[in-house]
Specification:
globular, binds zinc ion, 3 helices, Cytidine Deaminase, domain 2, alpha/beta
């Protein structure tokens, strides 16, 4: 699987992670999917309502606004981004929520700003290749 992310959206992802450090940052990526390729078009940063350095939660009202915005613009949520203090690999909690939210999950390490993308495919955790575009 592949997700294409424009450079300016990548910059915004990393910016938001740095700005919120050591709190876990959260963003949603809107876009579309075509032939198994996810294309990022827009980023929406949201508040981690737990204000925690080890977990995150998105207020249902924020989520509702994201759905509205996606629908108004003819897009869908393609990815959810959050940051970790350690390695950019999903925690057990992340995997639980990945089942309920079948998007691409992008995890960014606060330490070195390295990022990895994943998707659950029939209970199996798969790596998603990130392609940075202009
Ligand atoms: Zn996590």
């Amino acid at each position: 699987m592949i997700i294409k992310i424009p450079r300016n959206i990548l910059d915004e992802i990393l910016n938001n992670v740095s700005k919120n450090k050591p709190i876990e940052a959260v963003s949603f990526i809107l876009g579309y999917e075509k032939n198994g390729i996810y294309v990022a078009r827009e980023i929406i940063n949201v508040k981690n309502s737990l204000n925690s350095a080890s977990e995150f939660y998105v207020d249902p009202n924020d989520l509702l606004n994201i759905y509205k915005k996606a629908e108004e613009n003819g897009m869908q949520i393609v990815a959810i981004v959050h940051s970790h203090q350690g390695l950019p690999v999903p925690s057990a909690t992340d995997i639980k929520y990945m089942k309920l939210n079948p998007y691409v999950w992008i995890i960014v390490s606060m330490t070195d700003l390295k990022l990895q993308a994943y998707k659950l495919n029939e209970e199996k955790l798969e790596t998603v290749n990130i392609i940075i575009s202009l």
